[in-house]
């Protein structure tokens, strides 16, 4: 009975480790870190060929990505373009955002490594009399 509980806990921990690693990666790639004020839609943008009212445009900025409005594409439903604004590391918005990018990247690497190792904890639970769970938990705390 005890072995079943340990196995279920390790499976849950493995699943949550993978979910958190992917969530961090998605947050890093997101362009929605700063969301600007809603800009009203002009009258010529209101009728986009379908007669539907478009929602106001909100510019967004992420660590290295942003979403901007494309004014010449008024006929399409998707008139915002999202993508990287930084071609290299020095073009990231500010020193604080550069530091954030570094810390998040290191944290994501650690979380991905722990998620990868956690899959193997189903078979091997200790190495050299050290619990893999304790070491991985410490790494997850550092990454957080």
Polypeptide structure, described:
With 144 residues, this protein is of the alpha+beta class. It has one domain (1-37, 55-143). 49% of the residues lie in helices and 12% in strands. The chain is built from 4 helices and 6 strands. The strands form 2 sheets. The protein has a 4-stranded antiparallel sheet with strand order 1-2-3-4, with no helix packed on it. A hairpin with a 3-residue loop joins strand 2 and strand 3 (65-69). Helix 1 (2-29) runs antiparallel to helix 3 and helix 3 (95-120) packs antiparallel against helix 4 (132-143). The longest helix is centred in the first third of the chain and has 28 residues, at 2-29.
Secondary structure blueprint with pairings:
Elements: H1 2-29, E1 34-35, H2 43-46, E2 60-61, E3 65-69, E4 80-84, H3 95-120, E5 126-127, E6 130-131, H4 132-143
Keywords: Membrane, Transmembrane, Transmembrane helix
InterPro entries: LHFPL
Transmembrane segments: 12-31, 96-124
